[in-house]
Amino acid sequence: MKKKLVVLSGAGISAESGLKTFRDSDGLWENHRIEDVASPEGFARDPQMVLDFYNARRKQLLEVEPNEAHLLVVELEQYFDVHVITQNVDDLHERAGSTNVIHLHGELRKVRPLNSLTKIITWETDLHLGDMSTAGIQLRPHIVWFGEPVPEMEKAIEICESADIFLIVGTSLQVYPAAGLIHYVTEKCGVYLIDPNLENSFVQQENFYKMSAVEGMRKLTPVIKNQS
Which sequence positions are flagged as catalytic? Predict the structure, then answer.
Protein backbone atom coordinates (compact mmCIF):
# COMPACT_ATOMS: atom_id res chain seq x y z
CA MET A 1 0.00 0.00 0.00
CA LYS A 2 1.31 3.45 -0.92
CA LYS A 3 2.02 5.98 1.81
CA LYS A 4 -0.37 8.94 1.93
CA LEU A 5 1.14 12.27 0.85
CA VAL A 6 -1.03 15.31 1.57
CA VAL A 7 -0.18 18.54 -0.25
CA LEU A 8 -1.56 21.82 1.12
CA SER A 9 -1.17 24.44 -1.61
CA GLY A 10 -1.72 28.17 -1.63
CA ALA A 11 -1.44 31.22 -3.83
CA GLY A 12 2.32 30.90 -4.25
CA ILE A 13 2.02 27.88 -6.52
CA SER A 14 -0.53 29.62 -8.78
CA ALA A 15 1.46 32.86 -8.87
CA GLU A 16 4.19 31.15 -10.89
CA SER A 17 1.62 30.42 -13.59
CA GLY A 18 0.84 34.16 -13.75
CA LEU A 19 -2.20 34.39 -11.51
CA LYS A 20 -2.12 37.41 -9.23
CA THR A 21 -2.64 37.03 -5.49
CA PHE A 22 -4.36 39.64 -3.35
CA ARG A 23 -1.89 39.38 -0.47
CA ASP A 24 0.94 40.61 -2.66
CA SER A 25 -0.30 44.18 -2.99
CA ASP A 26 -1.50 46.03 0.11
CA GLY A 27 -4.50 43.77 0.59
CA LEU A 28 -5.94 44.76 -2.78
CA TRP A 29 -7.03 42.16 -5.30
CA GLU A 30 -6.83 43.51 -8.84
CA ASN A 31 -7.31 47.02 -7.39
CA HIS A 32 -10.40 46.02 -5.38
CA ARG A 33 -10.74 45.92 -1.62
CA ILE A 34 -11.11 42.30 -0.57
CA GLU A 35 -14.22 42.99 1.49
CA ASP A 36 -15.91 44.47 -1.61
CA VAL A 37 -15.41 41.40 -3.82
CA ALA A 38 -15.03 38.50 -1.39
CA SER A 39 -17.79 38.88 1.17
CA PRO A 40 -21.58 38.38 1.24
CA GLU A 41 -21.92 42.04 2.22
CA GLY A 42 -19.95 43.14 -0.82
CA PHE A 43 -22.16 41.06 -3.08
CA ALA A 44 -25.30 42.50 -1.48
CA ARG A 45 -24.01 46.06 -2.03
CA ASP A 46 -22.93 45.71 -5.64
CA PRO A 47 -23.59 42.28 -7.15
CA GLN A 48 -22.76 43.39 -10.70
CA MET A 49 -19.28 44.55 -9.68
CA VAL A 50 -18.63 41.25 -7.89
CA LEU A 51 -19.81 39.21 -10.88
CA ASP A 52 -17.64 41.30 -13.22
CA PHE A 53 -14.67 40.76 -10.92
CA TYR A 54 -14.97 36.97 -10.99
CA ASN A 55 -15.72 36.97 -14.71
CA ALA A 56 -12.34 38.66 -15.20
CA ARG A 57 -10.65 36.15 -12.89
CA ARG A 58 -12.25 33.26 -14.80
CA LYS A 59 -11.09 34.71 -18.12
CA GLN A 60 -7.55 35.15 -16.80
CA LEU A 61 -7.53 31.55 -15.55
CA LEU A 62 -8.21 30.28 -19.06
CA GLU A 63 -5.14 32.16 -20.30
CA VAL A 64 -2.60 30.47 -18.00
CA GLU A 65 -1.24 26.94 -17.69
CA PRO A 66 -0.08 24.70 -14.83
CA ASN A 67 3.59 25.16 -13.99
CA GLU A 68 6.36 22.73 -13.12
CA ALA A 69 5.41 22.69 -9.43
CA HIS A 70 1.91 21.45 -10.31
CA LEU A 71 3.39 18.81 -12.60
CA LEU A 72 5.81 17.57 -9.94
CA VAL A 73 2.90 17.09 -7.53
CA VAL A 74 1.30 14.90 -10.20
CA GLU A 75 4.55 12.97 -10.69
CA LEU A 76 4.50 12.00 -7.01
CA GLU A 77 1.26 10.06 -7.62
CA GLN A 78 3.48 7.32 -9.10
CA TYR A 79 4.97 6.81 -5.63
CA PHE A 80 2.31 7.92 -3.14
CA ASP A 81 -1.40 8.13 -2.51
CA VAL A 82 -1.47 11.89 -3.13
CA HIS A 83 -4.25 14.15 -1.85
CA VAL A 84 -4.13 17.86 -2.72
CA ILE A 85 -5.89 20.30 -0.42
CA THR A 86 -5.76 23.71 -2.02
CA GLN A 87 -6.71 27.19 -0.89
CA ASN A 88 -6.70 28.23 -4.55
CA VAL A 89 -9.87 28.69 -6.59
CA ASP A 90 -8.19 27.89 -9.91
CA ASP A 91 -8.16 24.43 -11.50
CA LEU A 92 -4.45 24.27 -12.30
CA HIS A 93 -3.89 21.16 -10.15
CA GLU A 94 -6.61 19.32 -12.07
CA ARG A 95 -5.35 20.53 -15.44
CA ALA A 96 -1.87 19.32 -14.51
CA GLY A 97 -3.32 15.88 -13.84
CA SER A 98 -3.84 15.63 -10.08
CA THR A 99 -6.64 13.15 -9.38
CA ASN A 100 -7.57 13.91 -5.74
CA VAL A 101 -8.12 17.65 -5.17
CA ILE A 102 -10.14 19.38 -2.45
CA HIS A 103 -10.84 23.10 -2.92
CA LEU A 104 -11.30 24.70 0.49
CA HIS A 105 -12.24 28.11 -0.89
CA GLY A 106 -14.35 27.07 -3.87
CA GLU A 107 -13.72 27.06 -7.61
CA LEU A 108 -13.75 29.82 -10.22
CA ARG A 109 -15.22 27.60 -12.92
CA LYS A 110 -18.26 26.66 -10.86
CA VAL A 111 -21.34 28.56 -9.65
CA ARG A 112 -24.23 27.85 -7.31
CA PRO A 113 -27.63 29.32 -6.39
CA LEU A 114 -27.61 31.97 -3.67
CA ASN A 115 -29.65 29.69 -1.40
CA SER A 116 -27.53 26.53 -1.69
CA LEU A 117 -24.06 25.27 -0.76
CA THR A 118 -24.46 21.97 -2.58
CA LYS A 119 -26.16 22.61 -5.94
CA ILE A 120 -22.91 23.27 -7.78
CA ILE A 121 -22.86 23.91 -11.53
CA THR A 122 -19.86 23.95 -13.88
CA TRP A 123 -19.68 27.38 -15.53
CA GLU A 124 -17.24 28.30 -18.28
CA THR A 125 -18.54 31.69 -19.45
CA ASP A 126 -19.37 35.04 -17.86
CA LEU A 127 -21.95 35.04 -15.08
CA HIS A 128 -24.56 37.82 -15.11
CA LEU A 129 -27.39 39.15 -13.01
CA GLY A 130 -30.41 37.26 -14.27
CA ASP A 131 -28.56 33.95 -14.69
CA MET A 132 -30.79 31.67 -12.64
CA SER A 133 -30.91 28.12 -11.37
CA THR A 134 -33.66 25.80 -12.59
CA ALA A 135 -35.61 26.92 -9.51
CA GLY A 136 -35.32 30.58 -10.48
CA ILE A 137 -32.63 31.56 -7.95
CA GLN A 138 -29.80 33.94 -8.93
CA LEU A 139 -26.48 32.17 -9.42
CA ARG A 140 -23.30 33.34 -7.65
CA PRO A 141 -19.65 32.33 -7.88
CA HIS A 142 -18.86 29.08 -6.07
CA ILE A 143 -16.33 30.87 -3.88
CA VAL A 144 -16.08 30.72 -0.10
CA TRP A 145 -16.18 34.38 0.87
CA PHE A 146 -14.96 35.82 4.17
CA GLY A 147 -17.37 35.00 6.96
CA GLU A 148 -18.84 31.98 5.18
CA PRO A 149 -18.51 28.32 6.25
CA VAL A 150 -15.87 26.11 4.62
CA PRO A 151 -17.86 23.02 3.56
CA GLU A 152 -14.82 20.89 2.67
CA MET A 153 -13.00 21.48 5.97
CA GLU A 154 -14.08 18.31 7.75
CA LYS A 155 -13.02 16.14 4.83
CA ALA A 156 -9.66 17.94 4.72
CA ILE A 157 -9.11 17.36 8.44
CA GLU A 158 -9.79 13.63 8.04
CA ILE A 159 -7.25 13.40 5.23
CA CYS A 160 -4.59 15.21 7.25
CA GLU A 161 -5.11 12.98 10.26
CA SER A 162 -4.04 9.95 8.23
CA ALA A 163 -1.15 11.57 6.34
CA ASP A 164 2.30 9.97 6.31
CA ILE A 165 3.87 13.05 4.71
CA PHE A 166 2.47 16.59 4.79
CA LEU A 167 3.81 19.06 2.22
CA ILE A 168 2.92 22.76 2.45
CA VAL A 169 3.71 24.74 -0.70
CA GLY A 170 3.04 28.38 -1.53
CA THR A 171 0.93 29.36 1.46
CA SER A 172 1.69 31.82 4.24
CA LEU A 173 -0.32 29.77 6.78
CA GLN A 174 -2.18 32.96 7.70
CA VAL A 175 -5.64 32.15 6.34
CA TYR A 176 -7.78 30.15 8.74
CA PRO A 177 -9.20 27.59 9.02
CA ALA A 178 -6.87 26.18 6.32
CA ALA A 179 -3.74 27.20 8.23
CA GLY A 180 -4.88 25.08 11.15
CA LEU A 181 -4.65 21.84 9.15
CA ILE A 182 -1.00 21.48 10.17
CA HIS A 183 -2.21 20.78 13.71
CA TYR A 184 -4.12 17.67 12.61
CA VAL A 185 -1.17 15.63 11.34
CA THR A 186 0.32 13.04 13.71
CA GLU A 187 3.73 13.26 15.36
CA LYS A 188 4.94 10.48 13.05
CA CYS A 189 4.03 12.48 9.94
CA GLY A 190 6.94 14.12 8.10
CA VAL A 191 6.17 17.81 7.49
CA TYR A 192 7.81 19.85 4.71
CA LEU A 193 7.38 23.53 3.89
CA ILE A 194 8.11 25.46 0.69
CA ASP A 195 7.65 29.24 0.84
CA PRO A 196 10.01 32.10 -0.05
CA ASN A 197 8.68 34.56 2.52
CA LEU A 198 7.98 32.70 5.73
CA GLU A 199 10.09 32.78 8.83
CA ASN A 200 9.98 29.11 9.71
CA SER A 201 8.41 28.16 13.00
CA PHE A 202 6.43 25.22 11.68
CA VAL A 203 8.86 22.48 10.67
CA GLN A 204 12.37 21.24 11.29
CA GLN A 205 14.95 23.50 9.65
CA GLU A 206 16.15 20.79 7.25
CA ASN A 207 12.56 20.37 5.99
CA PHE A 208 12.07 24.09 5.27
CA TYR A 209 12.72 25.20 1.69
CA LYS A 210 12.73 29.00 1.64
CA MET A 211 12.21 29.39 -2.10
CA SER A 212 9.57 29.58 -4.79
CA ALA A 213 7.12 26.75 -5.39
CA VAL A 214 8.83 25.58 -8.59
CA GLU A 215 12.37 25.73 -7.19
CA GLY A 216 11.27 24.11 -3.95
CA MET A 217 9.44 21.27 -5.68
CA ARG A 218 12.47 20.61 -7.88
CA LYS A 219 14.67 20.19 -4.82
CA LEU A 220 12.16 18.41 -2.59
CA THR A 221 10.63 15.91 -5.03
CA PRO A 222 13.61 13.50 -5.04
CA VAL A 223 13.82 13.74 -1.24
CA ILE A 224 10.17 12.74 -0.90
CA LYS A 225 10.43 9.99 -3.52
CA ASN A 226 13.08 8.31 -1.40
CA GLN A 227 10.50 7.89 1.37
CA SER A 228 8.01 5.93 -0.73
Answer: 105
